User: Which sequence fits this backbone?
């Protein structure tokens, strides 16, 4: 179509954010737009981001991606949740799984029935009522009908960007390599008009998507969108990432192991394992952090340590003038709950829903920025929860996070659950009731009370309900094949790329 004033779309940056945007825009807009992606091989990408959450399955569907092909190309394994070690107390673990636990009643979540069961002598753990959790523990997996198992992926981030690039290029997205030296703006409106590359070439556009990572070249450096700093709640500001060889078949879950100044991730893929130490530079120096990471690895080290610096927070304006940020350019929350790729996906879908027609509406911009901010705040609160509710007081780091004041929104959620066992999901919040319940109980909260509707059941009815769910979970898990066998059969990567 001619005459659309936003026809020339420039995606600035070719990391996961850039290529996810390019693939989705190419697929959705087709010949309506002329899409160009600019990236610099010399600058490169952040090179991490391997653990995901279930909505990525929907994103892949939207792009028409064949799942087995995508998993083969990215050496991916399935993921059913995250195992948290040493968070409540050193030596204790819990699991935050995808999916649901037990069966909710419309008035009250399953936890109320479980809590009532405890009073009546049913002492089986809450975990026994969750299929994803028990399947993860047994390292079993299969696609079940009616989305019976809720899953995500553990994938190779570099291979994922490569895979998306080939999709995007098939949809007509053009790639331009080169380092951007200058961002040009209209002297009156302040809108970005073009990018001047080191080579002297100029890339002009009508709408710019800033995917330049932590540099935030357009949204931050050029347009000055302010950064809202949350490091007083989330003091981790460094990470060291490296890859190791696999010492066992991949398990379908990520591990987050707390240490005395942060935590360590372990993400098993088909052919190797991604590892990283996240820490607060206020409580641990870089040399000690590396020593700690190297001292807690399995397998041979395959890559040089990748040192990363970051700050928790978000830009208040994700959309400013004719620039919209996607990915790390717009803000960052540490990868404890694997939410960054999801936030990229959300921003992309939001842009596509709010594409301007004749001119940018200030209302659209406001709505976009408010929605993104709310989403970040909700995820931020969920991540802070893991630090705030803990029995750990064994280091300055843990004493700080356990004693800090938390946002009112989170304080209310914690107090409500502690007093009543209730959790409410607000405004399409990403993490549902069951996620909050699993993490709050895992971190050590046992509610003082529960919903009276649970008392309505007779002893026999309650026993039948609880026993029936446990039996169905354990029967289904026993019927599932080992995860590694299923992956090898469904999407085993060719040996050459598994080296
Ligand atoms: P980048 O990968 O940094 O890409 C930036 C792009 O901009 C590059 O192509 C670069 O060349 C280009 N660029 C920059 N400046 C210029 C210039 N002047 N000229 C030309 N090009 C330029 N997310 C998850 O969902 N799960 C995880 O498990 C996870 N773990 C993480 C662990 C850590 C320690 C960190 C820091 C992040 C993690 N993330 C995770 C987040 C995830 O890595 C990012 O969201 C994702 O990689 C997107 O990054 P990006 O594309 O925004 O930025």
Assistant:
């Amino acid at each position: 179509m001619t005459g659309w004033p936003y026809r020339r779309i420039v995606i600035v940056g070719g990391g996961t954010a850039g290529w996810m945007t390019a693939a989705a825009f190419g697929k959705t807009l087709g010949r309506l737009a002329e899409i160009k992606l600019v990236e610099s091989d010399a600058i490169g990408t952040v090179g991490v981001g391997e653990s995901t959450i279930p909505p990525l399955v929907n994103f892949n569907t939207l792009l028409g991606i064949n799942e087995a092909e995508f998993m083969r190309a990215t050496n991916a394994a399935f993921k059913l949740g995250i195992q948290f070690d040493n968070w409540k107390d050193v030596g204790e673990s819990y699991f935050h799984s995808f999916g649901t636990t037990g069966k909710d009643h419309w008035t009250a979540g399953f936890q109320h029935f479980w809590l009532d069961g405890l009073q009546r002598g049913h002492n089986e753990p809450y975990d026994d009522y969750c299929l994803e959790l028990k399947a993860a523990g047994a390292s079993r997996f299969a696609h079940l009908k009616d989305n019976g198992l809720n899953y995500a992926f553990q994938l190779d981030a570099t291979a994922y960007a490569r895979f998306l690039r080939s999709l995007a290029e098939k949809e007509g997205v053009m790639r331009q390599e080169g380092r951007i030296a200058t961002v040009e703006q209209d002297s009156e409106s302040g809108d970005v008009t073009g990018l001047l590359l080191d080579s002297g070439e100029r890339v002009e556009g009508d709408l710019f998507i800033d995917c330049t990572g932590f540099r935030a070249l357009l949204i931050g450096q050029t347009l000055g969108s302010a950064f809202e700093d949350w490091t007083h709640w989330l003091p981790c500001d460094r990470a060291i990432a490296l890859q190791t060889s696999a010492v066992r078949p991949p398990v379908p879950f990520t591990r987050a192991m707390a240490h005395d100044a942060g935590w360590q991730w372990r993400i098993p893929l088909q052919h190797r394992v991604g590892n990283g130490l996240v820490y607060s530079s206020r409580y641990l120096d870089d040399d000690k952090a590396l020593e700690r990471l190297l001292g807690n690895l399995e397998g041979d080290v395959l890559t040089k340590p990748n040192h990363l610096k970051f700050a928790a927070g978000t830009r208040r304006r994700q959309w400013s003038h004719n620039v919209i940020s996607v990915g790390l350019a717009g803000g960052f929350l540490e990868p404890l709950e694997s939410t960054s790729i999801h936030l990229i996906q959300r921003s992309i879908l939001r842009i596509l829903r709010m594409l301007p027609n004749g001119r940018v509406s200030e209302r659209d911009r406001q709505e976009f920025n408010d929605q993104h901010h709310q989403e970040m705040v909700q995820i931020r609160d969920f991540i802070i929860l893991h630090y705030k509710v803990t029995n750990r007081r064994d280091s300055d780091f843990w004493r700080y996070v356990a004693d800090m004041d938390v946002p009112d929104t989170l304080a209310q959620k914690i107090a409500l659950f502690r007093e009543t066992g209730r959790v409410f999901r607000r405004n399409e919040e990403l993490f549902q009731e069951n996620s909050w319940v699993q993490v709050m109980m895992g971190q050590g909260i046992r509610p003082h009370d529960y919903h009276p509707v649970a008392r309505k059941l007779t002893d026999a009815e309650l026993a039948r309900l609880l026993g029936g769910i446990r039996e169905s979970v354990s029967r289904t898990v026993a019927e599932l094949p080992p995860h590694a066998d299923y992956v090898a059969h469904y999407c085993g990567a060719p040996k050459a790329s598994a080296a």
Observations:
- Residues 238-304 form one domain.
- The chain has a mean pLDDT of 96.
- The chain has 15 helices and 21 strands.
